[in-house]
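HUMAN: I'm a chemist; might I ask for a sequence paired with its structure tokens?

ASSISTANT:
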Amino acid sequence: MTSSYQQQLDAKIERIQTQFAEFNPPSLEVFASPEQHFRMRAEFRIWHTDDDMFYAMFERNTDQQKTVVRIDDFPIADQSINTLMPILLAELKTNEILSKRLFEIHFLATLKGEMLVSLIYRAPLTKEWEGLAQQLAEKLNIKLIGRSRGQKVILSDEFVVEELQVFDRKFQYKQIESSFTQPNAQVCQKMLEWACNSVEKTDQDLLELYCGNGNFTLPLSFKFNRVLATELAKSSVYAAQWNIEKNNIDNIQIARLSAEEFTLAYNGEREFRRLQEAEIDIQSYNFDSVFVDPPRAGIDDDTLKLLQGFNRILYISCNPDTLHDNLKTLLETHKIVKFAMFDQFPYTHHVESGVLLEKI
């Protein structure tokens, strides 16, 4: 590792160890990132001058003024994105229809080599634009989407299929444009393996809250008899169901509920037609463990109370502050038996962490 990457990683380790020291956790397991080419997504503004256009980002000065920063390459992005960036830009520059009023370009790449590019405009997209964009997509062998206000033109697909390896298994995941996916695929694989290593194979069932597109659901399903996973966003539920079928897994059900709604249903306080339509009988499950990967805001109080009833809680967090706060409640009934940090976002203050809790 270079000294600059190691220094920022060491600073994160010290921060996490200091923040959680009051809970007396076990030794922190640290999972580093590649130093370069680790982001599978990148988004750029397109800056136009009288005789040129280029990729740009903005940097805030001390007086909060924005400065335009020209981007000719982007070392933290996957190599495929860096390779495509100048080629795509050169093609766009040669065509006035494709370049006029172009506002942003978004890249979504996969480890297996697929690429989805979204071109975002400040002007309506015409049939002529569509024809030229189709030619460009075929020439560069990419998937292409055009967007403008109230308009979305999908030329082939609005998704890529990622392939992640977890030990000796490969899992395929549909990743839809503009939907959340883990940006650092190589660290994501380490997170999946850590989660699977944290639980013993059992004939009991797993509850998962906030399952997204089934990122953790798929590999964890091999450790349990059945899995009931919840997710509210329709696009994520659709992707999760596609991923379950694509990977030939038959012991997972997806309930389109928020964590708060599931708590109400599980406690018998409210019935949901969505459960009946999906033929999901919550009471038929023999839950022993629960897996949660909540949003940055953490877990609400009622759901925390629900979690306290499980023997094991596996908690992945993208926000150490809310994890720390949630642990104040969860450690009333549980203890930390595994503690990990994943450097999902190098060179930023963001850090992903994980804990395995067992009932006292």
User: Anything to note?
Assistant: The domain at 3-36+182-359 is CATH 3.40.50.150 (Rossmann fold).
